[in-house]
Amino acid sequence: MSMSKSARFEVPNAGEVSAIFERPRNAESLLVLAHGAGAGMNHPFMQSLGSELAEAKVATFRFQFPYMEQQRKIPDRPAVLTASVAAAVRSASEAAPELPLFAGGKSLGGRMTSNDAAREGGLGGVRGLVFFGFPLHPPKQPGTKRAEHLREAGLPMLFLQGTRDSLADLKLLRPICKQLGGRATLHVIETADHSFHVLKSSGKTDAEVLQELARTVSDWTRRYI
Description:
CATH superfamily: Alpha/Beta hydrolase fold, catalytic domain
Number of helices: 7
CATH topology: Rossmann fold
Shape: globular
Largest sheet: 8 strands, mixed
Oligomer: single chain
């Protein structure tokens, strides 16, 4: 059983945005959850993920980036996106100051969260970062430049990645996680793509994958509570 509550908060120089605070009665932690580039916090994946995380005793604070709030298709500049993450973390912390705080998101949302964590001062109060499909590079353009800032983030990180993710070649991501040492945990889902859809040959359904994602996050966050 969980409670969902609508919220709004201010992003400096970008206006107000919407958020949804979903808290199960037995919540053990709180995850600030940013959406990906092409779909907002109400996308079915984000809604289902929030529900599964609640079942796994993880409360979530999902929020809109300003461009999505204003129904624009092109994402805001990185400075606005990282400022949005910082504002969401502050708002989530105020909503439930007693819960251990984590932050991350789907694709772009996760990458902007780690970018903000890497700046001087970082994300105060956040105990770890969670990436649902870290977008290491554009499709068919393998590279590692997008991961260079992770060394500066200084927080434990959980990478949830599919073997068919066209935005993250695991041959490139595995060495990055190794370089990060004990701070990085990589959880691989066989046959999952960037949206965490799996092939029938995996023996799993998409719904079971969502449950696996949520359980993995819950187990990982307990290490840092």
